[in-house]
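WARN no homologs supplied; continuing
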Amino acid sequence: MIDQTHSHAKEVWSNQEGPFKDLEKLVRKYACTPYLRPIAGHTRTAFADAEQFIADFYSKRHAQSAPIPVILDSGCGTGESTLHLAHQFPGYPIIGIDKSAVRLDKASKSNGSHPQALPQNAFYVRAELIDFWRLTLEKVTVGKWTVPYHALYYPNPWPKQSEATRRFHLHPIFPTLMGLAQTTELRTNWETYAQEFAQATRMLLPNAGVTMQLIKEDKPITAFERKYKNACQQLWQVIIHQ
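OK structure emitted
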């Protein structure tokens, strides 16, 4: 995620006209190609910490038979969205994941300028998203975890055409990402990104329910969303049900 501290938000500019021309080619290719990059050691450590938090969370409540539900907030930044999800889903552990130690330090110390105790079901980890997703999919595949909801709020859109393959839906990680959750929600301030994500999902998962629409609620749930709303930008969401 990019810096969330500036109040002014420029609209996304791209030299790409419409959805990326090779979208279908890349999605089809990666659907048949395993992603074998070594997983970073620090992400394995972070995943183990999250796994322990989840185990402790359920041990303090009632016996939970596998698969156990876990909610992911990927690219959580300073954690505002994680807090939102913790209150929305009080019975589930919420794992906020970000690669920035600075942003997560802010998240652990306060909610914006208002320090408060972290909800008992919220936990932050510093990790590479791609690696964390791969480790999570291992748990899902063997039936130990289930992910009822996966928040993917305002990822870096990499809007230049030359950067397109860094977008999650044009990257080898896309099949892993879409294998994780029962419901995935993407939010973005770039309509083309939402269009691409929805189109790629329909190609990869033809039986999934895919909805793309404008975000209409008034209360922002992330610092990004607040910044974009204050700048009067249109915000889009793509919701996938499997």
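The two ends are 26 Å apart (CA to CA).
OK
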